[in-house]
Design goal:
Layout (H helix, E strand, L loop, with lengths): L1 E6 L4 H12 L3 E7 L11 H4 L9 E2 L2 H5 L4 E4 L5 H10 L3 E4 L6 H12 L3 E4 L5 H17 L4 E8 L9 H14 L3 H4 E3 L13 E7 L5 E9 L2 E9 L3 H15 L4 E3 L1 H4 L4
Parallel strand pairs: 1-2, 1-4, 2-3, 4-5, 5-6, 6-12, 7-9, 8-9
Antiparallel strand pairs: 7-10, 10-11
Helix pairs in contact: 1-9, 4-5, 6-7
Length: about 270
């Protein structure tokens, strides 16, 4: 049984993670962590997720929560690097689903993994989305820059960052396949009299509205045809299931920094 701590346990994603851990016989909820300002501190994590109480209250004391745990799942804003350090010092594997991490934080996480940490870091934990990543990379390499690429993403009206981490990763994959610079190639939205579309440009468009969990479409368009690759998430459980799959992978993995492509053996 994998003793698991969830950081960000009171959020929408955190509650679904709690639910999926409680429903899975391979896992045991060992801790539930929230920020010190959370109004949910002290409440039973299972009860907050719609289950019978399990005796695990929400706490802001991460070092105490991770003591004796096997894995920590981080879907929270705040100091992700420091939370990861604390978890690794306790001997835990760490799965990070927090999006929009600064480049400096990603570099530090890579250093922690190089020094013996076991970490999965991915902008999206969905199995389907990670297959989309794989397919987009293949399509971009085969089609080349004769095809214009546009990426459209839509999320609920409470999402704080734009574009989504998934959309950014999709654009990064196209850039890698074409061997071009992200900063020089990607255009976020368009407005005004901008003239003809430059050859090789990659457009990203972020839509927000309602309760959309997450839709992503990558469009490859050229004269006479258009290829569209789309993933639509109808429930946050798809991310939770992928996250638990990542935890299982890490428990048996050698130290290192991994992503979901490694978890799913797509490379």
């Amino acid at each position: 049984m994998i003793r698991t701590v969830i950081c960000g346990a009171a959020g929408r994603m955190g509650r679904r993670l709690v639910a999926n851990v409680l429903e899975n016989p391979d896992f045991k909820l060992a801790g539930a962590v929230e920020v010190a300002e959370s109004p949910f501190l002290g409440q039973d994590a299972a009860q907050l997720a719609g289950f019978s109480p399990c005796g695990v209250p929400l706490t802001a004391d991460l070092p105490a929560a991770v003591a004796g745990a096997d894995a920590v799942i981080i879907f929270a804003t705040g100091d992700v690097v420091q939370s990861t350090r604390i978890a690794l010092q306790a001997g835990c594997a760490v799965v990070i689903g927090t999006t929009a991490l600064p480049a400096a934080d990603r570099e530090t996480l890579a250093e922690l993994a190089a020094n013996g940490g076991r970490i999965v870091l991915a902008p999206n934990m969905s199995v389907g989305v990670n297959l989309l990543f794989h397919l987009v990379r293949e399509a971009a390499a085969i089609l080349g820059d004769d095809y214009d690429v546009e990426i459209v993403e839509m999320h609920h009206n409470l999402k704080k960052d734009a574009p989504s981490g998934t959309a950014v990763r999709l654009a990064e994959l196209v850039c890698e396949a074409r061997e071009v610079s992200y900063l020089d190639t990607v255009k976020n939205g368009r407005e005004g009299l901008i003239g003809a579309r430059p050859r090789g440009e990659i457009g990203i468009h972020a839509l927000r509205g309602g309760d959309v969990v997450g839709d992503h479409t990558v469009i490859f368009a050229t004269g006479g045809e258009r290829l569209e690759l789309t993933h639509k998430a109808a429930s946050r459980d798809t991310f939770a299931r992928g996250t638990l799959r990542a935890v299982r992978f890490l428990v048996a993995a050698e130290p290192g920094l991994y992503d979901m492509q490694d978890v799913l053996k797509l490379r």
